[in-house]
Amino acid sequence: MAHGVSLIGVSGFAGGELVRLLAAHPDVSLEAVAGATSAGSRLGEVHPWLAGTSLGEREVVAPDAVGTTEVAILALPHAESATLAPALLERGARVIDLSGAFRLDAAAYPEWYGFEHPQPAWTAKAVYGLPERGRDRIAGAELVANPGCFATGAVLALAPVVDAGAIDPRAVLVDGKTGVSGAGRAASETTSLAASAESVRPYRAPRHQHTPEIERALSVDGREVGVTFVPHLVPAVRGVLVTCYAPLAAAAGTQDLTSLLSDAYAGERFVRVLGPGDMVDTKRVRGTNVVELQAFVDERTSTAVVVAALDNLVKGAAGQAVQNLNLVLGIDETTSLPTMAVVP
Amino acid sequence: MAHGVSLIGVSGFAGGELVRLLAAHPDVSLEAVAGATSAGSRLGEVHPWLAGTSLGEREVVAPDAVGTTEVAILALPHAESATLAPALLERGARVIDLSGAFRLDAAAYPEWYGFEHPQPAWTAKAVYGLPERGRDRIAGAELVANPGCFATGAVLALAPVVDAGAIDPRAVLVDGKTGVSGAGRAASETTSLAASAESVRPYRAPRHQHTPEIERALSVDGREVGVTFVPHLVPAVRGVLVTCYAPLAAAAGTQDLTSLLSDAYAGERFVRVLGPGDMVDTKRVRGTNVVELQAFVDERTSTAVVVAALDNLVKGAAGQAVQNLNLVLGIDETTSLPTMAVVP
Amino acid sequence: MAHGVSLIGVSGFAGGELVRLLAAHPDVSLEAVAGATSAGSRLGEVHPWLAGTSLGEREVVAPDAVGTTEVAILALPHAESATLAPALLERGARVIDLSGAFRLDAAAYPEWYGFEHPQPAWTAKAVYGLPERGRDRIAGAELVANPGCFATGAVLALAPVVDAGAIDPRAVLVDGKTGVSGAGRAASETTSLAASAESVRPYRAPRHQHTPEIERALSVDGREVGVTFVPHLVPAVRGVLVTCYAPLAAAAGTQDLTSLLSDAYAGERFVRVLGPGDMVDTKRVRGTNVVELQAFVDERTSTAVVVAALDNLVKGAAGQAVQNLNLVLGIDETTSLPTMAVVP
Amino acid sequence: MAHGVSLIGVSGFAGGELVRLLAAHPDVSLEAVAGATSAGSRLGEVHPWLAGTSLGEREVVAPDAVGTTEVAILALPHAESATLAPALLERGARVIDLSGAFRLDAAAYPEWYGFEHPQPAWTAKAVYGLPERGRDRIAGAELVANPGCFATGAVLALAPVVDAGAIDPRAVLVDGKTGVSGAGRAASETTSLAASAESVRPYRAPRHQHTPEIERALSVDGREVGVTFVPHLVPAVRGVLVTCYAPLAAAAGTQDLTSLLSDAYAGERFVRVLGPGDMVDTKRVRGTNVVELQAFVDERTSTAVVVAALDNLVKGAAGQAVQNLNLVLGIDETTSLPTMAVVP
Question: Which of A217, B40, D142, D297 is 20 to 30 A from C204 (CA-CA)?
Fold first, then answer.
């Protein structure tokens, strides 16, 4: 029997991607699609690529018109989620939240998100939704904090080498590159084709809010972690590539780090570890829930480098949310999640 | 009176850019344009954007048909330059070489370029052609080794902070992003639009040949320098952005580093230092000889970050060669070098 | 029970797309994957996006190593198909051929394809594989000539207005725009990112081989049809947009033509007719088997305009081949064919 | 002595391009730079690529703060120009207007521009500013109506063949393709990178306001002209390609039409006629004031095809305005106008 799922915050890119994935999901009944600005429109007006399908005829309702639902998936601005998710939880729904509202300790919100968290108790109860780093806790969670796109890549890249003590986690550098869809769907001069073509630009450095998220996710057992993170915009629509650097803690070679990754992710359907000689490529994971990982060592400088490539809107947002949904519902974790890219 | 200049290796992207810049140069007479594969063709066949101009009618000659010339500019494969440049020097020409053949100590060539240097004595006599780091020696040089594109950005970004002792130069990380023109003009599946669109990829890491070039250029007075360098291809045609990271050697803030850069490059026509709040952008220097620089400090991790943006074919190749040519000829260093980009 | 299908010509873009679609096909067993140049490689070497999947481990065999198979799908150069398809047919396979080798009368090949057809009898037996224009004949065909990408768009756009006598079919103009994947996967300077970015170019005009294909497909009952066709390359990877113009044969408005299209394609799963106000968009059909159509009339000049947008590699090649395969196999025509694009 | 020129409407793409061209103009003194929304800002804030130059420090003033000036160049919305240009003319300035406000007969404005023209008398006095079709009248004009980008290409392509009676001018079809900069600088979802990448779309068809402009410019001596025009957006920043089709009026071949073009534009510095075998390319004219033209005949259908490629912001806007300025000032028409593109 299908599980009832409601989607709140449908008009953005992640919202659209959720519609695409949930529409093909055999175990889910899409109960409500809701959005503040798009309420009253048909879904095909909000996402023209749905026009002419039956989904396109669905009416978008206001967020507060969402009734009882088994699971609510929220793709909303951080501050809105911080308030709405607890309200839904109190009405009995389980919640998967794509914003950053429940990824950090409550105390960190003023500094990193610019607001005092209205529901600090829920930040403590939220489970960080990175299945490859703890799917059991997600399965039982009331509230899942779906990770950020850069954080997904950086944590999956670094966790095995940090856990193994292979690198010094206090001196981690993460250089991120993202397509412009990461900046959202709202029209802006910055993400216009005219401004973006032939443009490579750092942004929001060194204060991007995924920095403490990466640190927290790597800080298992009180381990001290320090991350410097600089994101960059590149002229692509989708795709995140994170290149992570850290000093080796002990002598190790490329093959050693590659083995750490391979072992850590053995059996994972959505993690692909490449060997030396290959190179990760965001194009190869476009539209899929896959992360490509690759490690190498610069022996001249005793530096470990681990690179991750993912689709920011899928494994970095909507796809991971569906993966978490599958865990929460107790069904096959891979249901409705593509692994093969449309290339070229 | 015009100075006679010959251009050898005209068919690639740097060769084409040299033609564009020298065609507008008031003090230069372009004596020969030469190329191995394009010999016998008209320049307008080699570079169709020249068709219909008088330059387009010029015949490309074979490299060994270049006679005596005041200055020869070489845009050739490394190993070819290593042999041809000395031959031209012995015939009395001054040489500006765009390849990597004279940028390193002779001993480094087997490891980094894959060949034994045929003319080790000339590597010692060559002057590294980064005018902002020593224009006097360039002015008097017989042989100028024009810097690599990534190295130009990284050295201009880092030299002032290394010189001032602000960072630890033994733990420098350079994350490079380049458009595909850096891979040259020859057709390859890798640089096709089909493979490059929506693709962000590391390549040739951690063994890119600009690594020792950056180290050497920063190793003033025997200073120990260690650089880990990972280049990436992004879906752009032109543009290099290098993001350089290093531990602070002493407490310093963003403004301190910015001042170091501003002071170091005061009066430089081709270096633009941005303050906090701005962000460098490869689009803004496209087609120009300008480098944009920007520094900031992540005080949480005591990490210095300096970013440089440049056009790999201009300040990273042909434009810097013309800048060096102007120095060699004793004329205004800025002659025929654009500073204003065609935006958008 | 699964039907045995062999795929010959696996290394190009259409071959890769066929692998992607057939891999997800529930009723097909992929018996052999063959290719001349890639024989002996694993499929994951030929298409790196398959690396790490079980399909990626499949070995590519030589075309002549393909044994008996229920259906063979050929994605080969025209002249190779012209010879190989009949050989397979004679061995009892049914054949779906993606090349142009069986789309025209045998007599037309010297002029339009540059070779004398080696198997003229089979050109007469081949069925043109445009399901929306005659799926019954395809279902019973031994040899299906899968249409060209531009022809698919132009014929679907024009056939209803030609059939209804709404336009003068002797004065049809087709202006085509295509992404560079239409030029194939082989590396070429023309389709490099460096040459293609910011470039819009006509090509092979007015002698493109889809011209007689469009004319023939519209020439029902000996109707005289004359088409002028000019294709253009635009800086995209996928996507074909054809804008078809013709003089109105009788007074008609935008709504009249729109109704002709809507009526003609009522019930078609892969044709979406847009009303006035909307505009077709290749992005909206990317990766799908859908064609978007739209008609309008310029009443000032009594000109009908019908526009079609499709994915050249899906509805214009591999997807349509699978649609034809489904018809040939007598299964649901829409099996394994995506209709929802990955946007943005 | 320098001529005083004021620029009104500086914040858009055409305004920026005018700044770039006028900054390098040896005979022009840029008296005022004005803009409604940007008044009070420094020019370097409006166009960040000017930051750090002396021009970047210039303050933008309000349009009504522009005093007496020898020539005013206006890059404003149509309806604003329609009012402001006459006001400036009455104060003694000569005016070059980049909007469509003076390109048509006054009676056409309600239908094509959606407003009643406030100054119908000035539409009759304005001279259409296409130098290659009548530079003498421009030189003496008080008010020059700078042509639209599509119209520039279509008129230059078609006029010689219309004038020679080679085609039937009542059945002209113009298929236009443009990069997104043609839609202006204002942020919009339509021209975002996310919406534009991999997208080819018709727009505003068949009611684009360049249609009557093309017809009027070709209607010499009361000749009857009928144009159907469909513009399309392609994923490029700059560049317009127009493909013009018309029935031949008498037997003629590709070489005949090519000769008509060559003869008509013999001696023109900004028109490049390509022969058969070449193909026009917007990349080759990017950033320049050049139009590339090419003609061919489809003898099967007796159809003439003439294609034009230009940079919509240069020959299609700011460059042509400077060309007209040079004529108005009586100086060398080619001053400060680039003819060599930055390729790739």
Answer: B40
Active-site residue, A244 included? no
pLDDT at A214: 98
pTM: 0.97
Q: Where is the domain boundary, A92, A125, A158?
A: A125
A46 is a domain residue: yes
A317 inside domain:
no
Pair (A283, A159) in one structural domain: yes
Q: Which of A79, A54, A81, A192 is nearest to A144 (CA)?
A: A81
Size of interface B-D (CB pairs under 8 A): 60
Please give the average per-residue pLDDT across D148-164, as a whole number: 98
* A160 and A63 part of one domain: no
Q: Can you say how many angstroms the Cα of residue B3 is from the centroid of all Cα atoms in its chain?
A: 23
The backbone region for D118, taken as left when phi is positive above 0, alpha when psi lies in -120 to 50, beta otherwise, is alpha
Residues 252-281 of D with CB under 8 A from C: 279-281
Q: Does C239 contact chain D (CB < 8 Å)? A: yes
Same domain assignment for residues D204 and D253: yes
Please identify which of the residues A55, A149, A167, A271 carries the catalytic annotation. A149
pLDDT of residue A51: 82
Residues A117 and A164 in one domain: no
Does residue A112 form part of some domain?
yes
Helices B149-163 & B254-264, crossing angle to 10 degrees? 110
Domain holding D255: CATH number?
3.30.360.10
Residues C189 and C233 in one domain: yes
Given a cut of 80, whether residue B1 has pLDDT beyond it is no
Per-residue pLDDT tens digits for B237-286: 999 999 999 999 999 999 999 999 999 999 999 999 999 888 999 999 99
Helices (H), chain D: 13-23, 43-46, 78-90, 109-113, 120-125, 135-139, 149-163, 193-196, 210-218, 254-264, 319-329
Residue A187 and residue A89 in one domain? no
Structure confidence by residue, pLDDT tens digits, C89-99? 999 999 999 99
Q: What is the CA radius of gyration of chain B?
A: 19
pLDDT of residue A277: 82
Whether residues C205 and C249 share a domain: the answer is: yes
Interchain pair C191, B193: CB under 8 A: yes
User: Mean pLDDT in each 10-residue stretch from start to end of chain A (344 residues)?
Assistant: 94 97 96 96 94 90 93 98 97 97 98 98 98 97 98 98 98 98 94 98 94 97 96 98 98 97 97 92 97 97 98 98 98 97 95
Option in A13, A180, A186 nearest D193 (CB): A180
Looking at this predicted complex, what is its ipTM?
Answer: 0.97
- pLDDT value at residue D329: 98
Pairwise CB contact (< 8 Å): A194 & D189:
no
**Domain end (from A74, A91, A125):** A125
Per CB-CB distance under 8 Å, the chain B contacts of D50 are 340
Q: Does C137 map to a domain?
A: no
Taking an 8 Å cut-off on Cβ atoms, the answer to whether B200 and A279 are in contact is no
How far apart are alpha carbons B64 and B88 in whole angstroms? 10
Determine if residue B165 is left, alpha or beta; phi over 0 gives left, psi from -120 to 50 gives alpha, anything else beta.
left
> In chain A, how many domains are there?
2
Whether A199 has its CB under 8 Å from any CB of chain D: the answer is no
Q: CA angle C219-C222-C227, nearest 5°?
A: 35
Residue D41, domain extent: 3-125
Sign for the CA dihedral angle at B216, B281, B23, B25 comes to negative
Residues 6+ apart with CB under 8 A from B71: B3, B4, B5, B6, B93, B94, B95, B96, B325, B328, B329
Q: Do D300 and C226 touch (CB under 8 A)?
A: yes
| One domain, residues B103 and B167 | no
Q: How far is CA D165 from the centre of its chain?
A: 25
Strand bridging mode A201-202 / B240-247? unpaired
Q: How many CB atoms lie within 10 A of CB D90?
A: 9
